[in-house]
Write a structure and sequence with these properties.
Oligomer: single chain
Strand content: under 5%
Structural class: mainly alpha
CATH architecture of the largest domain: Orthogonal Bundle
Order of helices and strands: HHHH
Largest sheet: none
Radius of gyration: 20 Å
Shape: elongated
Number of strands: 0
CATH class of the largest domain: Mainly Alpha
Helix content: over 70%
CATH topology of the largest domain: Arc Repressor Mutant, subunit A
Length: 89
């Protein structure tokens, strides 16, 4: 049997989870908007690196470019996303 204190904890936990989910959705929307500002090449390489888990060298091999080109593109994309967040926060 749930007593009042336990019920209170259950309600608070449920509210916390709901707020956390809402915050997570807002952060994802914000990140998607930031990624949308990237060039096509930056978006593709960010996706391969973070979503597909590829290394910079694997991306370079796939695209037929050198490792430094991929590294430079990813670095620039991260900076651009960071600036987007700073401007919007």
């Amino acid at each position: 049997m749930i007593i009042d204190a336990d019920l209170s904890d259950v309600i608070i936990t449920a509210l916390d989870e709901e707020e956390e989910e809402k915050l997570h959705k807002e952060q994802l929307q914000f990140l998607r908007a930031a990624i949308a500002t990237l060039s096509v090449i930056q978006r593709r390489r960010i996706s391969l690196y973070y979503e597909k888990g590829m290394t910079e060298q694997q991306i370079a091999d796939l695209e037929g470019v050198n490792h430094q080109a991929v590294h430079h593109t990813l670095s620039g994309a991260r900076k651009k996303i960071g600036k987007y967040f700073l401007k919007r926060s």
